[in-house]
Amino acid sequence: MTIRIAIGCHSYLLGEGLKRLFKHDDAVEVIGIFDEGIDIREIVKLEPDIILTDFKIFRSFPHAFLENNTIKIIIISDGAWLRENENQIPELISRGVSGIMVPESDSGRLREAVRVVFSGELWLDRKLIKNLLTNMRTFDKKIDLTRKEKEIVSLICNGCRNKEIAQQLDISEQTVKSHCNRIFKKVGVSDRLQLALYTRRMWPGMF
């Protein structure tokens, strides 16, 4: 059975390079190359089995894609992307990502990953899995927050910015920033998105 692949790169030229890697692979058909700015609904219309994309294309996943979860995504990452997004990988997987190629990957590993993902399995580097398990163990620790910190977390999870939080709690923005820094340190995260993911995991339905 032929594996239908759509390739996405911030540079169309790089996309063509990826296409050449499958030139002599009779089991793979590259059905299209796209770059930044394309509406993902147009890609879905091509009915690919796999979207092979670099880390710069999908910064978020629109509802149009989530409604079609039969399409699998493999992300080609680099070191900087992994450092910034490693804690978010479980969320990415829940939203359709089936594989992540680490910077050390070569063309042979890429072709192998395509087959593994097409078969319904996940493709993750061993070191990456080890780091994820370490992060999950850290996330499993219960964190004690003060009443004020819980109020701030609740507002953050509802999309409020520091200025809005300060207005609602009648405190200064600097005080909000100080609270946020303490919360991030307690929880072991570095930004609001990671905090929201942690909150959803540890206190479902609370905020």
Describe this structure in words.
- The protein has helices spanning 12-21, 40-45, 63-66, 79-85, 89-94, 107-118, 126-139, 147-157, 162-169, 173-187, 192-202; strands at 3-8, 28-34, 50-54, 72-76, 97-101.
- It is α/β, with parallel strands linked by helices.
- The protein has two domains: 3-137, Response regulator (Rossmann fold), CATH 3.40.50.2300; 141-202, Winged helix-like DNA-binding domain superfamily/Winged helix DNA-binding domain (Arc Repressor Mutant, subunit A, Orthogonal Bundle), CATH 1.10.10.10.
- Strands 2-1-3-4-5 form a five-stranded parallel sheet.
Shape: elongated
Compute the CA-based radius of gyration: 20 Å
Q: Which superfamily, in CATH terms, is the homologous superfamily of the largest domain?
A: Response regulator
Beta-strand fraction estimate: 5-15%
For the secondary structure, the number of strands is: 5
Separation of termini? 47 Å
Helical residues, percent: 40-55%
Per CATH, what is the topology of the largest domain? Rossmann fold
* Residue windows where pLDDT falls under 50 for at least 5 positions: none
Main β sheet profile: 5 strands, parallel
Identify the CATH class of the largest domain: Alpha Beta
Number of domains: 2
Number of helices in the DSSP assignment: 11
Under the CATH scheme, which architecture of the largest domain would be assigned? 3-Layer(aba) Sandwich
Protein traits:
207 residues; alpha/beta; Rossmann fold; Arc Repressor Mutant, subunit A; 50% helix
Helix-strand blueprint:
Blueprint: E1 3-8, H1 12-21, E2 28-34, H2 40-45, E3 50-54, H3 63-66, E4 72-76, H4 79-85, H5 89-94, E5 97-101, H6 107-118, H7 126-139, H8 147-157, H9 162-169, H10 173-187, H11 192-202
Parallel strand pairs: 1-2, 1-3, 3-4, 4-5
Helix pairs in contact: 8-10, 9-10
